[in-house]
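queue> pop job 88
queue> type: inverse folding (structure -> sequence)
queue> payload:
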């Protein structure tokens, strides 16, 4: 039996249960909420979305876990020293959706939309000089599947793209860097900096005052990764001082963003409600089903989460 273990709403869980069951009619998939003790003993696979670790601990025959999310830092943190293999969602559709969002909001900054919105509020008729895409350097932090897809979208649009990742990567048309010196080199040249890094012990607080100060004058930031990668107070200070031009933030330390958070009304910040790359239920269910069928047939798993790295 497969258990669907979540801390999402009943309605959202029901939709996931329908999608997964449709893709795996040969499997019995049941919400953990509806399992009795006898049923729990027969569960060998858990499909999860923000699961309660105590619920997972009540599945004595569990052999592995499949996450419905690409980001697994919360899951890794909460299940701690578990020896159970965890498979995270790697969905090409997610990469396409994220690349679309990166390009859209890069255009938003490139074409000075925040300034024109301000001019409208001020009833001020002003025209800013046009810059060509090749005059703008976009720095990408994170060159995994999401970052690589975004890099291709940006280079196709004519932007100059440079990127940084924890380990060395080679992407056609992109100047890539790694290591501390590489990070500093990317920051110093990024007119628009896009963060797509996973949240780990190494990336938490990575974009602090010291590193933000390396960005060129009037640079902008797009954070579509995780909130704690950016030190919020130090970002606000850089924006208030005019060292940074604008920040597009889709992720925050606390979500939903509290109504009294200073980001809401800041004139140099665009707030998004974590919508840059939502999981596509249809394509995700198909991928999970393929992985489970492969496991049933061969006992092999796709690449599993490295708990030491956090992803």
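queue> result:
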């Amino acid at each position: 039996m497969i258990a669907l273990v979540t801390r999402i709403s009943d309605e959202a869980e029901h939709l996931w249960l329908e999608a997964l069951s449709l893709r795996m009619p040969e499997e019995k998939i049941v919400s953990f909420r509806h399992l009795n003790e006898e049923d729990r003993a027969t569960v060998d696979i858990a499909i999860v979305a923000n699961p309660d670790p105590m619920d997972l601990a009540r599945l004595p025959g569990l052999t592995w876990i499949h996450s419905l999310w690409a980001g697994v830092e919360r899951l890794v943190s909460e299940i701690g020293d578990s020896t159970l293999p965890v498979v995270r969602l790697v969905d090409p559709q997610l990469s396409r959706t994220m690349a679309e969002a990166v390009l859209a909001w890069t255009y938003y900054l490139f074409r000075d939309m925040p300034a024109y919105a301000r001019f409208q509020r001020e009833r001020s008729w002003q025209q800013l000089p046009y810059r060509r895409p090749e005059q703008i350097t976009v720095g990408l932090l994170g060159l995994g599947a999401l970052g690589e897809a975004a890099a291709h979208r940006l280079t196709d649009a004519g932007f100059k793209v440079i990127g940084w990742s924890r380990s060395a990567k080679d992407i056609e048309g992109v100047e890539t860097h790694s290591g501390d010196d590489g990070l500093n080199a990317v920051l110093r040249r990024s007119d628009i900096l896009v963060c797509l890094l996973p949240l780990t012990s190494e990336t938490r607080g990575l974009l602090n005052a010291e590193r933000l100060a390396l960005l060129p004058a009037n640079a902008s930031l797009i954070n579509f990764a995780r909130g704690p990668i950016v030190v919020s107070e130090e970002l606000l200070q850089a924006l208030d001082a005019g060292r940074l031009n604008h920040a597009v933030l889709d992720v925050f330390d606390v979500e939903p963003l509290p109504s009294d958070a200073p980001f809401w009304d800041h004139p140099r910040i665009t707030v998004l409600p974590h919508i840059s790359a939502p999981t596509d239920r249809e394509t995700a269910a198909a991928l999970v089903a393929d992985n489970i069928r492969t496991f049933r047939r061969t006992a092999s798993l796709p690449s599993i989460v490295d708990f030491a790295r956090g992803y």
